[in-house]
Design brief:
This protein is α+β, with helices and mostly antiparallel strands and about 325 residues long. The protein has 2 domains: about 220 residues, ApbE-like domains (T-fold), CATH 3.10.520; about 90 residues, T-fold, CATH 1.10.3980. The chain contains 9 helices and 17 strands. The strands form 5 sheets. It has an 8-stranded antiparallel β-sheet. It has a 3-stranded antiparallel β-sheet with strand order 3-5-4, with helices on one face. The protein is globular and about 60 Å long. Bound molecules: adenosine-5'-diphosphate and magnesium ion. Adenosine-5'-diphosphate binds next to helix 8.
């Protein structure tokens, strides 16, 4: 009680010391097919607003570079031409694709941006999916080893026809990391940047941790766990984001590269770690790996923890989070 009281007094004096304009600023926009939200605090609210505007501009820039919906994006150019020969790309895109390939190595192929060679045959909004013959025909193109990145030349090529890549499992985390870097550059020390299921937290919430709720897979009002965080990233991958149900079967947007079908063992995976590119890639990869192999991977890595919700509704924690 005493500790609480002194914390409250400290918070009160912090407020009293700040100019009248100091307040939390919040802004939201739909970008990259998802909800992007930024919160920031600064003694001078105008500084916070300018920083947030720069973050949104950056999000649009990353989207233009990496969207597979935009035919003019560099990513779309790679998909259209890389089977014929090396395609020149921005060093930044070459670096992120190289990073994605590292996640493939780490997850033993569970995270694989060439999933898209089959993945593009699904249309979750329209309730469309490939049949067995289509999956069999396209599955040989799913293999991260088909993607050759030359960082020095800043080019990407594919070793065979039919390969497509998509950065949906990592680009939002990357954009969030860029956003937080910009907030910090502009003098913000307390803030958050969120894109869909990926969040990065800068500093604390003026003397307290940020508390992030992990939602129940079937009920967005219910929370299965709450995690206090300071200077950290958190990503959730779930089977409830983009999906359709048919004959009691759920078809959703996280594809097992070995089968070309939705990964079925888990309902959601949340990864907590130092940066959002890492947590985003790992949340998708661990979702495919399943509980046993996924948790084993998380235990091997330093600085990352995980909360898993199984198909049976059980909540599993990595040892860094498990209650004693
Ligand atoms: P979201 O935040 O959109 O829910 P996730 O981080 O859960 O995204 O990743 C899902 C997205 O990752 C899919 O929409 C797709 O673009 C991409 N993806 C699907 N399966 C894989 C996979 N096995 N490896 C890499 N990326 C994948
Ligand atoms: Mg992800």
């Amino acid at each position: 009680m005493k500790a609480l009281l002194s914390a409250a007094l400290a918070a009160a004096s912090l407020l009293a010391a700040a100019p009248a304009a100091a307040e939390w600023r919040v802004r939201e926009e739909a970008i990259m097919g998802t909800r992007v939200a930024v919160e920031a605090w600064h003694e001078d609210a105008a500084v916070a607003d300018a920083a947030m505007a720069a973050v949104f501009a950056e999000m649009h820039r990353v989207d233009r570079l990496m969207s597979h919906y935009k035919p003019e994006s560099e990513l779309s150019q790679v998909n259209a031409r890389a089977a014929a020969g090396p395609v020149a790309v921005a060093p930044e895109l070459a670096a992120l694709i190289a990073r994605a390939l590292e996640f493939s190595v780490l997850t033993d192929g569970a995270f694989d941006i060439t999933y898209a060679s089959v993945g593009y045959l699904y249309d979750y909004r329209a309730g469309q999916r490939p049949d067995d013959a289509q999956i069999a025909a396209h599955l040989p193109a799913v293999n991260w080893r088909h993607v050759i990145v030359d960082r020095a030349a800043s080019t990407v090529r594919f070793t065979q026809d039919g390969v497509r890549i998509d950065l949906g499992g990592i680009a939002k985390g990357y954009a969030v990391d860029r956003g937080v870097a910009i907030l910090a550059e502009k003098g913000i020390r307390h803030g958050t940047v969120t894109a869909g299921g990926d969040t990065r937290i800068l500093g604390d919430r003026l003397g307290r941790p940020w508390v992030i709720g992990i939602r129940h897979p079937d009920d967005r009002q219910r929370v299965v766990s709450r995690i206090p965080l300071v200077d950290a990233a958190l990503s959730t991958s779930g089977d409830y984001e983009r999906y359709f149900d048919e004959d009691g079967q759920r078809y959703h947007h996280i594809i097992n590269p070995r089968t070309g079908r939705s990964a079925g063992e888990l309902r959601s995976v949340t990864i907590i770690g130092p940066d959002a590119t890492t947590t985003d890639g790992l949340s998708t990869g661990v979702f495919v790996l399943g509980a046993e192999r996924g948790l084993a991977l998380i235990e091997r890595l330093r600085d990352v923890d995980a909360v898993l919700v199984t198909a049976g509704g059980k909540v599993l924690y990595s040892s860094g989070l498990a209650p004693p």
